[in-house]
Design a protein that fits this description.
- With 914 residues, the chain is α/β, with parallel strands linked by helices.
- The chain folds into four domains: 132 residues, Helix Hairpins, CATH 1.10.287; 321 residues, Thiamin diphosphate (ThDP)-binding fold, Pyr/PP domains (Rossmann fold); 176 residues, Rossmann fold (3-Layer(aba) Sandwich); 142 residues, Rossmann fold.
- It contains 28 helices and 28 strands.
- The protein is elongated and about 105 Å long.
- It starts with a strand and ends with a strand.
Length: 914
């Protein structure tokens, strides 16, 4: 009979014989039942019992090692689901039927070779399959073959039996002895995670996988690095020594946030396997899309279109898995064509607590893993104090991923032996749980005793194994005292060996020319203006756009969209892969790009002209994303980590929308190199401009990016050699084709996409040209600088409004307008040259953004450094405000008129001193 274990919080007395009844089925379930579970001639209700066990058995499975909580947060068992044996009448049966034999339906595997079994044995075997230390959730999957596959894995008699070939390591005990007062975020209470991961990797390796990308939170990271990745122990131990300083650049990060890349032999398969554990901040699930992006990139560059060589594993905490929205966003990328990694194995370390928060107030779903049901991923709950059950589940999960290339979730129901960290006191908030934990025998002790009792090993063999591992740890501890051993670069999770030297320096510090031959520009422009496929009917509106491009090319001009085409196309010619993703990027939010053309008469027939430029070009990937910023930007960041020889771009629908991806920007993009010596060339395209569209569609918040820029506002840099390149190398994010990789933030235009003056000549892109960090005034003011009365520095769209106003007031000789194109790092050298050119002019900084936003706070101290505080620099722009823009068009125009009047009022200047 089924038995529900007793709990301290209720739920029935221990040892009470129980049988589970099916839930009430609606009439529209009849066809489903008749298809999956043929009605038995001897008992029409027996198949209902069988179905009930499959669907709801996990609710009564013995999953909690402590025996005090219910994994599904519900200790009450409704009477319609479970009853005592003497109430078998619900099924049209009674106690006398327990010894009767029944014909088994063809969809069950519990009989093995038997086609009939006594009812008592049927109930026992169903209990073993679905109500023991493993709880299986899979009946929501709407695929017959997948459901049958899972049934066979868990119903076949005797199949859930798997002996560990090695002992779980004593790594955590060693750390606790040596650094008892240090935060380690140890794995105590879920030590089984280590052999679980090894089992997944071994099984996947035997199926052909040779590269595994992993992400995980801080708990257990050091153990995973040591015993799964096999990071040198002395490198881990030296992180505990506060006296050692890293010999590399960067601030570094705490030891339980660091990543690692390592290639080794898999001892089970004798095959090479590469393991990469991604560095991750305390924002626990932020690494999820980053891992997926990197895995997708490796698959892409290796031509692994089915995920047979490269796979990803994500580890989670129970509270974070249920609570953080990026988990949901990442799941929804799992089967999108341009984002799928062909199945991820998710392992949840279910401590049944989040810091100090009880799960009953941390989530509304029964299980923390319920979010995975959104993509029909099977969920295997397992008692983490049963190592054999855990290992079996891991093998099944690896086989599932290999067979179906879909996500799968393993829920390791365990406990946390200590507090949130080793210095924390958990008895403050969970006294009953931690009283039980203090009585709980270690899983290694329980399992070793079991193996010794079964004669699998002897006590002497076990003790020798423990002593052997302790000796290895002691030797590594001694070695870790070497002051030369600590290098941040030893913790790279994405090394680029062909791009950097062994010391991590660029192999070159010179910028390659970026100008192009005239014929290359013409060829790209003509392709951008045409449809390479025959019999392909495009929309009349797109035809007009292509004709407009053709006219621009004929006149040797380009607008923003065509300039983007030139940049991408020239990189593709040089073998550089270009990937552009985001919401609506194929067409472009403002209908300016049209990189994907759609046949108006054939469904799903598309054409990407960019992929028809050259015979041996690199591929161009342009893909609309899900309506996600956090998840998709994290994904593209991970994609950019895989190779330095690619241009990976993410475009926000409006620049404002990067707000919901701020975690990726703050924790990975801005500070990733400083913390993890991680170079990355990710590009953010953020539409920005005050155009009367209201506060939600105006500002890409440049002030936030500038605030995080690391150049010193009070120091005028003095470099030998190439000033520009050295300044870019020292910053944390920037622009242009370089021998190193930095993130690039571009505040892209909206109205300027079609502005007649916002165009460039081919002369600006031909051989000998390069990116202009600062664009000087090129009109009459530049010809007679001694006559100029005012120099206005600005950036972005406001330049065109200033230029128009200057022309209308006939002030082109009296006022010079200079544009900062590279805002950070600040072009000190070029700004000083411009200031010294206009010796008689007063200086103004003008911006359309409010004074407490935009660029003001960034440029203010830097301009004062440029002029060495010898003359004032005036501010012209909108006053401070709480919202980035007004929602009233009339107010917007009035604000614009006011600061234009201020900028050009030479006789009664009312600007504000910087």
């Amino acid at each position: 009979p089924l038995t529900r274990h007793g709990t301290e919080s209720g739920g029935g007395p221990p040892g009470c014989p129980l049988v589970k009844l099916p839930f009430v089925l609606s009439s529209n379930y009849f066809f489903f039942l008749s298809f999956f579970f043929p009605i038995l001639s001897t008992s029409p209700h027996l198949s209902h019992l069988y179905l009930s066990e499959q669907i709801r058995g996990h609710h009564v499975a013995q999953l909690d090692p402590l025996g005090i909580l219910e994994a599904d947060l519900d200790s009450f068992v409704p009477s319609d689901l479970i009853t005592t044996i003497d109430k078998l009448g619900f099924y049209g049966l009674d106690e006398s039927d327990l010894d009767r034999s029944f014909q088994l339906p063809p969809t069950t595997f519990i009989g093995g070779e038997n086609t009939t079994l006594p009812l008592r044995e049927i109930i026992r075997r169903l209990e073993i399959s679905y109500c023991g230390h493993i709880g299986v959730e899979f009946m929501f999957i709407n695929n017959v073959d997948q459901c049958q596959w899972i049934r066979q894995k868990f119903e076949t008699p005797g199949i859930i039996c798997y002996k560990l070939n090695s002992f779980m390591f004593r790594f955590e005990d060693f750390l606790a002895r040596k650094w008892s007062s240090e935060k380690r975020f140890g794995l105590e209470g879920c030590e089984v995670l280590i052999p679980a991961l090894k089992t997944i990797i071994d099984k996947s390796s035997s199926a052909g996988i040779d590269s595994v990308i992993m992400g995980m939170p801080h708990r257990g990271r050091l153990n995973v690095l040591a015993n799964v990745i096999r990071k040198d122990l002395d490198q881990i131990f030296c992180q505990f020594d506060p006296k050692l300083e890293a010999a590399d650049e960067g601030s570094g990060d705490v030891k339980y946030h660091l990543g690692m890349y390592h290639e080794r032999i898999n001892r089970e398969t004798d095959k090479n396997i590469t393991l990469s554990l991604m560095a991750n901040p305390s924002h626990l699930e932020a690494v999820d899309p980053v891992v997926q992006g990197k895995a997708k990139a490796e698959q892409f560059y290796r031509g692994d279109t089915q995920g047979k060589k490269v796979m990803s594993i994500l580890m989670h905490g129970d509270a974070a898995f249920a609570g953080q929205g990026v988990v949901y966003e990442t799941f929804h990328l799992s089967e999108l064509p341009s984002y799928t990694t062909h199945g991820t194995i998710h392992v949840v370390v279910n401590n049944q607590i989040g810091f100090t928060t009880d799960p009953r107030v941390a989530r509304s779903s029964p299980y923390p893993t319920d979010v995975a049901r959104v993509v029909n991923a099977p969920i295997f709950h397992v008692n983490a104090d049963d190592p054999e059950a855990v290992m079996y589940v891991c093998r099944v999960a690896a086989e599932w991923r290999t067979t179906f290339n879909k996500d799968v979730v393993i829920d390791l129901v365990c406990y946390r032996r200590f507090g949130h960290n080793e210095m924390d006191e958990p008895m403050f908030t969970q006294p009953l749980m931690y009283k039980q934990i203090r009585r709980q025998e270690h899983v290694l002790k329980k399992y070793s005793d079991k193996l010794i009792a079964e004669g699998v090993v002897t006590l002497q063999e076990f003790e020798e194994e423990v002593a052997k591992y302790d000796k290895i740890c002691e030797e590594a501890y001694t070695s870790s005292k070497d002051e030369k051993i600590l290098h941040i670069r030893h913790w790279l999770d994405s090394p680029w060996p062909d791009f950097f030297t062994a010391e991590g320096e660029p192999k070159s510090m010179s910028c390659v020319p970026t100008g192009l031959e005239e014929e290359v520009l013409q060829h790209i422009g003509q392709t951008a203006s045409s449809v390479p496929l025959e019999d392909f009917k495009i929309h009349p509106g797109v035809s007009r756009i292509l004709r407009g491009r053709a006219d621009l090319v004929k006149n040797r001009q380009m607008d923003w969209a065509l300039g983007e085409y030139m940049a991408f196309g020239s990189l593709l010619k040089d073998g550089i892969h270009v990937r552009l993703s985001g919401q609506d990027v194929e067409r472009g939010t403002f209908s300016h790009r049209h990189h994907v053309l759609h046949d108006q008469e054939v469904d799903k027939r598309t054409c990407v002209p960019m992929n028809h430029l050259w015979d041996n070009q690199a591929p161009y990937t342009v893909c609309n994303s899900s309506l996600s910023e956090y998840g998709v930007l994290g994904f593209e960041l991970g994609f950019a980590m895989a190779s330095p020889n690619a241009l990976i771009l993410w475009e926000a629908q409006f620049g404002d929308f990067h707000n919901t991806a701020q975690c990726i920007i703050d924790q990975f993009i801005s500070s990733g190199q400083a913390k993890w010596v991680r170079n990355n060339g990710i590009v953010l395209l953020l539409p920005h401009g005050m155009e009367g569209m209201g506060p939600e569609h105006s500002s890409a918040r440049p002030e936030r990016f500038l605030q995080m820029s690391k150049d010193d506002p009070d120091h005028f840099p003095e470099f030998s050699g190439d000033f520009e390149v050295q300044q870019l190398y020292d910053c944390n994010w920037i622009v242009i084709l370089l021998p190193f990789r930095k993130p690039l933030i571009i505040f892209t235009p909206k109205s300027l996409l079609r502005h007649p003056d916002a165009r460039s000549s081919f002369d600006d892109l031909v051989k000998g040209t390069k990116f202009k960090r600062l664009i000087p005034d090129q009109g009459p003011a530049n010809q007679t600088p001694d006559q100029v009365k005012r120099v206005i520095f600005c950036t972005g769209k406001v330049y065109y409004e200033l230029a128009k106003e200057r022309k209308q007031q006939n002030l082109e000789r009296e006022i010079a307008i200079i544009r900062l194109e590279q805002i950070s790092p600040f072009p000190f050298d070029l700004a000083r040259a411009e200031v010294e050119k206009y010796t008689n002019a007063e200086l103004v900084w003008c911006q359309e953004e409010h004074k407490n936003m935009g660029y003001y706070d960034y440029v203010r101290p830097r301009f004062l450094t440029v002029v060495a505080n010898k003359k004032p620099v005036w501010y012209v722009g909108r006053d401070p405000a709480a919202a980035p823009a007004t929602g009233n068009k009339s107010t917007h125009l009035n604000e614009l008129r006011r600061f234009m009047d201020t900028a050009f009022n030479l006789s009664a200047f009312q600007g504000k001193d910087l």
